[in-house]
User: What shape does this take?
Amino acid sequence: MWCICESLKTYANSSNGFKMRLLKIGFNTHRENFLYIYANAPLDTTKDSQRMTIVRPRLNDFHNISLTQEEAEFAIPFIDEDIPLYLDPFLLWKSPSLQDNSLHLLITNSFNRLGLLLSQQKEKEALELLVRASECDEVGLGNSKKKEGKRIGQKLAQNVLQQFSSIPQLKKSGFIHFEEIQLLVDNFSKDRVSDIACNFIQSFLVDFTIEQCEKHGFPIEKVRLKNLYNPKTFSFIEEETHLPVNPNSKKPIIFTPKRWLRNIPWLNTDDYFQNFFLPNIVKDEDEFPDKIKLLNFNRHNYDIVQAYTSIKEKQFENCKNDPLFTQIPITSARRKISTITSLPTGKTNNADKLFEQNVCQLMASLVYPHLDFAEEQSRTESGVQIRDLIFYNNKSSDFLKEIYETYDCTQIVMELKNVREVEQNHVLQLNRYLKEQFGKFGIIIARNPPPAKVVKNIIDLWSAHRKCILILHDEDLKLMTQVFESKQRNPIEVIKKKYIEFTRLCPS
Amino acid sequence: MSKVVIDEFKKVLNQLEGLHEEISSLSKKSYTDALNGFKLKMTNQVLKKTNKILGDHYKPFDDFEVFNEEDLPTNSDVALVLSQYINCMESLREENIFSKIEYTSSGSVAKIIWLWKSTKIETYPPKNVKR
Assistant: This one.
C-alpha cells in the first residue's frame, strides 16, 4: 500500500505539465493505511490568486468547494480567524445519540482522571495533562483573530487540580459535568471548557474531519499532530495523519460538528449567578458578592452547584446548539422594511446610517441560506463613508451558479446608497470594485428605480466589459420581505428576476 | 367541435375556474405577493392547454402565452389573466352552441335546450359575458 501511495504522489507531482491536486484519501480501519486519489485536472492558478483576496475567506472558498453553512454538518472554518462558537459538552450529554453520550463520558472520565492522578500523588503528571489539554488550535473555536491560543499556566492548572482534593464530593466521585469547574475556579472560561473537551475527543474529531473531507472534496495533506490525546493510555501522543491544512499557516485543521456548538455553555457563571444564586441563595440583608467571593462560596458549598446542575439537566430540552447565523424573525423583517421605506433619502437625521443598518440586517436574513453573509465592510473613500455587504457565492442555485460561471463572482458585493436617484458616478464607483473575488457582478441597493440614463450606462458597461450591475430599490426589498414572510418564493428569486430583466435589456 | 374537443374544453374550463377561485382568494389576502413555483407551474400547464383550444382568434392577449416563472408574477397578476382566459373560453363556447326549443301540445314553450353544434351534447345557456 505504501509503495502505491508513494508512486502516486511522485506521479502527481511530476513535471508533466499537470500539477495535480490531492483530492481524497481512503483509509481502512486504521488511519495508517491510505489510498491517495488525485484529480487529473490542472490547478487553476488564476482562481487561486482570486481566492486569496476573498473577504473573510473560509476553507471551502479557498478550495473552490460549493458548500453553504446550512448544508455542512460542521462549522466551516475561516482561514484567518476562529469560529466564534464553543463546543459545549452538555450538548453531547443531552444528545439522543449514544455515540455523543459515550464521547461525553470519555471527556468526563479523562478529566476525572486528573483527580485520580492527584490522589495517587502524581501531581506533576496531572498538571502536564491539564496544561496540554487546555488549548486546541486545530479546531479553531473561539474569538482569536490569529487562530492561535495559549495554554493555561501552572498556577491556574494547580488551582483546578486543587478542587479534586478540597471538595469532598469531587474527591470521592469526580465531576459529571466538568464545565462546573467554571463555577469553582477564577479565569477558567468557556474557551477552556471547549478546548479541553475538543482535546479529549480529538481522535474522534480527526476521523470525522477525514470523513467530511471525503464527502465534500476538501484536499487533505499529511500532517503531524503533536498533541493528540490517546484515551487508551490517557496520555498525549504524536501521530501522523491526513487532514486539511490552513493554506496560510500550513497548520492542520479539524472540523467540529455544528450540533455541539454554542455561544456560551449551558452551564455558565453568568446564568448561575443571575438565575440561580441571586434568586435562591442571596438574602436581602446579604452583601452583594463579587466574583471571587462567589467562587469561594461555591467551593465551600458544592452541593449548591450540584443543585444548579441538576436543575439545568432537567431543562435539557431548552439547550440547543447555536447556528453561526440566525435569520431575523418575520415581524422584525416587517418592521425593518417599514423603517427603510419611511426613511428620507440623503443624510438628514442620520438617515443614511439607519438605511445601511437596517438593510444590512434585513438583506443578510433574506438571502440566507442561499448566500452566507461574509462581512459588512465600511471604509472611507473621499471623505464619504461607504458600506458594502459581502456574501459568499456558494453556487447554491442555478442563478448563483450562472453568475459564478459568467461573471467569475466568488463573492457578491452589495453597495448601499440612500440617495433619491442613482447617478452615473454610483455605478462607476461600484464598477471600480468589480475585480478579483467580486468578478464582474455587483448590486446597488438604492431607494428608487434608476433613471433611464443610468440604465443605459449599466447596459453600456455590459456591452463594453461584460460587467453586470443590478439596481434594487425599495419595491424590490418590499417584495423580497413579502416572499420571506409568505414563504411562497425565495427572496433570492427577486434578485434573479432583476438579473433576467437586465439580460433582456442587453443587446443580443 | 368534435366530442373529444368538447370533453377537453369542459375539463380545461373546470381547471381554469378552479385555479381562478383559488388564486383569487390568495389575491384577496395579499395581492402583491408572488405566487409560489408549484402553483405557477400548474397554472402554466392549464394555460398551455387553453391556448391550444382557443387558437389565435380567441386568445386574450397576442403576446402572452404562459407566465415566466422567473418574473415572479403576483397573485393578482395571475388572477387577472385567468379571468380573461375564462371569459374567452366562454366566448368560444357561445360560438359553438345553439338552442333548441321544445313545445307543449298546446303550442307553448315547454323548455329551451342548449346543445353543442353538430352534436347532441347538452350544455348550459351562455353566461352574461361582458364585452
Q: What stands out?
A: Residues 98-119 of chain A form the longest helix (22 residues).
